[in-house]
């Protein structure tokens, strides 16, 4: 979507305010980018936030609204997204922001559709039956966003190997969040642990957060963190191809989210007595270490190598973008 400088500046400012209100952590991380990449990250975030809010019928991640018209809301998201990719005005600054950043860096409709599929899964209160289901969910709600962010950072949409590693970063983020928020999610009526895992621990659905199951819950969290570390290591390897400041940002984020997971594992059965977080000083330390790693740029390949990619987590029957009208 081609716009003049004034219109682009207005969209960037709208996006900046959106991220400032909606995600302080993302806003802080974006400061590591150069100005051009930071603005594009804001533009992408604005679309993600707005589309997610439409899907959940909420405002800035607030209280959920009426879910009876989900199909209509998802169709609305897809219509506006298609207009944005067609370079047409949408009447919504967040979707116009997507059109601008997509035209500037080469984002594709399929990338956006994979993210929308994640909004749909969340809005439909979908539950994973297997570990593979859980990882597909993580791809759609986080890995696919990581892929789009990689393109924003300058990765070619054709560089599948690097996009695969960007997906790993998203998977590590989401798996760490799942481990940290098991009890909080249960209180909201959601569970992202695979049903097969619960069955293996002989836990009935909906009973996994009961006090007498905390040891089993800690064991499942440890399984999640093992997956976090697997994908964290792969993401750090993939960061090698990024420009320095983007590489620094990715390595910082990977370390911080990996640390959240490891803290959950270390706390064991007490991990959900209070929220697990990384203190500001510790985050700064990870930032310094990431800076040094970004300078050296020699991340070690994880044991056993890397033999997986997006194709392993994206369903073969993934939806395709709607036809343009």
Automatic annotation (TrEMBL):
Cofactor: ATP
Protein keywords: Carotenoid biosynthesis, Transferase
GO biological process, one term: carotenoid biosynthetic process
SUPFAM superfamilies, per database record: Terpenoid synthases
Pathway: Carotenoid biosynthesis; phytoene biosynthesis
Ranges that cross the membrane: none
Keyword Transmembrane helix: no
Domain of life: Bacteria
GO molecular function: geranylgeranyl diphosphate synthase activity; squalene synthase [NAD(P)H] activity
InterPro entries: Isoprenoid_synthase_dom_sf, Squ/phyt_synthse, Squalene/phytoene_synthase_CS, Trans_IPPS_bact-type, Trans_IPPS_HH
Classification via Pfam families: SQS_PSY (PF00494)
Record bears the keyword Thylakoid: no
Family membership noted in the UniProt record: Belongs to the phytoene/squalene synthase family.
The name this protein goes by in its record: Phytoene synthase
